[in-house]
């Protein structure tokens, strides 16, 4: 049996057991996330341990800014797209489009000190076959740094 079908069957059985509205909402959220068929890989760790460098190595190109001091100030999501594109998502839910060359001004301490732009995350789409469709790599500010990683739905 296909693993996706098995998962759907398990969710159907679980739905029969759900009695609270909160649990039903949680289950609906799980179904929605599974339906996207997306694998999000969060690269997390202490500050200055090579998270951006690792993602760049996986991509085969120096896409994400790297430096000798803690650099990443905002979570950066890299995924495959039909065209190269950078989208900044703000806490107030605004989204703005940017050039790839503007990425350091959005996601680094040098360009966006302590996330003064109030970004939730920056999304980078690459028209590059080396990144499988449906896979997202997330570069995060270092644990133990003075920066805070914001979470959103």
UniProtKB/TrEMBL annotation:
One of the record's GO molecular function terms: GTPase activity
Entry-linked PANTHER family: SARCALUMENIN, TRANSMEMBRANE GTPASE FZO1
Protein location: Membrane
Domain annotation Dynamin N-terminal: ranges: 41-145
Sorted UniProt keywords: GTP-binding, Hydrolase, Membrane, Nucleotide-binding
A GO CC term attached to the entry: membrane
Protein name: Dynamin N-terminal domain-containing protein
Origin species: Mangrovactinospora gilvigrisea
Gene3D superfamilies named in the record: P-loop containing nucleotide triphosphate hydrolases (3.40.50.300)
Chief subcellular location: membrane
